[in-house]
Structure formats: C-alpha cells, structure tokens
Specification:
With 345 residues, the chain is mainly β. It is 11% helix and 34% strand. The strands form five sheets. The chain has a five-stranded mixed beta sheet with strand order 2-11-7-4-5, covered by helices on one side. A five-stranded mixed beta sheet has the order 13-19-18-15-16, with no helix packed on it. It has a three-stranded mixed beta sheet with strand order 1-3-6. The termini are far apart.
Length: 345
Amino acid sequence: MIEEITMKQKSWKERSVLALILLIAILGIPATAAASMPGSLHSTAKGDSIFIEGHAYGSPSAGVAVWIFGHNYYLRDTQSVESDASFSYELTGTRTNQMASGQYFAVVQHPMANNRFDVIEDTTTTAGTTYVRMRGSVATSGADVFIAEGPGRLQGSNAAEALIRLLDNQNIDDTYMRTTFLIEEPRIEIDPINTIYTAERFMITGRTNLAVGNDLLVEVVSSAFGHTSKTKPEPFSGASGIAKVVPGDAFSQRFFFEVDPAAFLPDEYTIKITSLKTDQAATTTITVLEGMPPTEEPPTDLPAPIPTMPEPETPSPEPEPEKSPLIYATIAALLAVMLFAWKRG
C-alpha cells in the first residue's frame, strides 16, 4: 500500500522542503500507486534546498531511487532508508541555483520484495547517452526503454510518464510515488499599504518564494534622508529590523514586520525589503501624516419630506347649449294658430 504524498516546509535556515510520503507494505504483493496528490505544485527559490522525505516500509537495503526530470535536466540518485523506515533526500541549494526556472517532476522508486531496482539507468551502452530500461533488457529503442540524457532524450513530464509506464509493467514489482515542484528566481512582493498616521502602528506584510526561516532586512527611510547636506542638515526618521519568512501556501511564504511611526516626521517614506541570502529586494513608498486618521462621520439622516396632496381640480361648468331661433319661430306660429281659432269660435 502506498499512502498519498503530502507537502510541507521545514523551518530550517535556508531550506525549502518538498515532503514526499512513501509508505509501502512489504507483503510480497506488488503495491499500487496513488492517483492524486494535493498541494503538489510547490514553489522554491533558486539557491534553496529541496527535501524529498518519507517512509519506505520494509527498510530496503537498496534504499529508494530518486528520479528528477525537467527541461534539459535529468537526475537519478539513491537514498538510504533508516531503521525506522524513514528517508530524507536533499536536492541542495547549490544544485537548485544551477537549475532553470520551471516545473520539475520527481519520482521515488521502491525496490519492493526482491530488494532490487527493476527499472534502472544505463550509461555505458552508448557514450554520452543515458538509457532508462527494465533490468535485463539491452534494447536501445522500443517500449521497454527511453533516453533520459543525450540525443533524442525525453524531457520533463514526458520522461516522468515514460518512467512510470516502465514501473507499471506487470513484470515489475517496484512501486513508486510522484510529485512536482517549481524552481523560480527569488522574489519578494510587498502588499499595498494605505496612508499611515503617526498615532497608529502599522504592519508591513508581503509574500516571497524564499524558504521558511530566511531573514529579510526591512528598512523604512524618510525621503529627507537623501536630500540633506553637511551645511544644511535636515531631520529625518525611519525604522529597520529583521523579518523572518514564515509558512504561507503552496506557492509562496509570508513575512510580517510591525512599525511604530510615533517618532516619524510627516513625509514620504521608502520601504525596502532585502533578502540577506540572495540580495533580492523589493521597494514601495508610503505617505506618513501626523496624528490620528480622520474619523468618518456617519451621514446625518434628514427627515423625510411630508408628501403634499395635490388640490382637487374644480370641474369647469359645462356651457349651456344655445337655443336655436327655429324654436322661437315655432312657438310664435303655434300661438298665432291658437289665437285665430279662438276668434272664429
């Protein structure tokens, strides 16, 4: 049985850690490889050591084989296993300093029950070429071999997958675990800082890919420091100290440095963070004002306006229809007829 790989960093000076847990039960039955690996893409700065650590149960006297593939990079080495089944392989800072920035693929091989590595490297068949093949094979091409160094070499993930295909062969009892890591140029990033007031302490924070435990020199210097002369000195203020790199996430570590600006003069200040190991540096500027930050007054709630009811419109009287002259003529004719009839009667 192989347990899942986990990643961690050691808090050891000038180290970066890639923790690889390889737990294998030696029962004469071939083990199977883990399919997933959370937190595998770990970032390390050039010049920091990487540690591949874990446990190989059965404490094989042959130890474990460590394979590392990258762009134009190949390494195979072995590491002994302690009596408690633990092992620790160091990819030194001297080596990582010479490695190109990019992604690398690591495979740790356990020899299993026969206590021998059944997938091996061959550096003697062809001068300047390193073959990786199954033990007993003499092929220089085909499914049972690939070139790790020399003309026609496989690189990076292609080489790692080719190795895994060999280890997965049903005639091979060796088992393995794998992981990846990043090599990067050293970097330091300072988090944005708002305007500072002398009455309040503030924190300088940021991220770096330097290993946990590295020392960072923090300098906060007033711009007046660079504008003074011997004949007309100007007062200046600032602060300095050491910040330790502490654990962060899989891609970067963190650093924190608290500053008390009580003695600072109002001015523009430069913050500079420098690695004491690599001389890598980052800078930013801040503005320091005197006193306390202004308090924001809560908005005054104005009374809501009283809604006014619109006055009802007075309906204008409808004009009376004009009487037509025909009506008057009709009435006069009727009266005349009635008068004539009355006189005859």
